[in-house]
Write a structure and sequence with these properties.
Blueprint (H helix, E strand, L loop, with lengths): L12 H6 L3 H5 L4 E5 L5 E4 L1 H7 L10 H4 L6 H13 L3 E7 L7 E9 L5 E9 H10 L6
Antiparallel strand pairs: 1-2, 1-5, 3-4, 4-5
Length: 141
């Protein structure tokens, strides 16, 4: 079982993930992807496959070539610029997901010890997020 101390909001999230083995990374409640400096997928967690709706692991493929959106300046460009400046520590809000365009993604990108990056992906379904407001009598957005 994955160690409970791996909190998605931890400032040292990548360092904590690097202390886990692949089986433990697979059990985390959020998606985990490890890319080398050029964007080749080195690790793609079971949770990411399940939550994204993409059952295939793109291990060995260029992550940025898999999606036109992720390969653009708003995503790949931000990561590339951060890599050029040194240590990467980004949080990117991203609309839409492979299997569900209504999902909002919260992507934490941090430097890996090997010079690449770790992508940690938390998901929220927009329709579900609006439900608590309806229960309180507030209009839904």
């Amino acid at each position: 079982m994955a160690r409970a101390w791996v909190d998605f909001d931890a400032p040292d999230l990548a360092a904590r993930i690097e202390q886990l083995n692949d089986a433990e990374r697979d059990e985390l409640p959020f998606g985990v992807i490890h890319l080398d400096r050029d964007g080749t997928v080195l690790f793609y967690s079971a949770t990411e496959r399940r939550q994204s709706g993409n059952p295939n692991s793109p291990k060995g493929q260029n992550f940025y070539a898999l999606s036109r959106c992720m390969g653009g300046d708003n995503f790949r460009g931000r990561i590339a610029r951060a890599l050029e400046e040194g240590r990467v520590d980004l949080e990117i809000a991203w609309p839409g997901d492979y299997g569900d365009p209504r999902r909002e993604l919260r992507i934490r990108v941090q430097s890996a010890q090997d010079g690449g990056v770790w992508l940690c992906i938390g998901r929220d379904v927009v329709a579900a997020a609006a439900q608590p407001c309806a229960k309180q009598g507030k209009p839904q957005a």
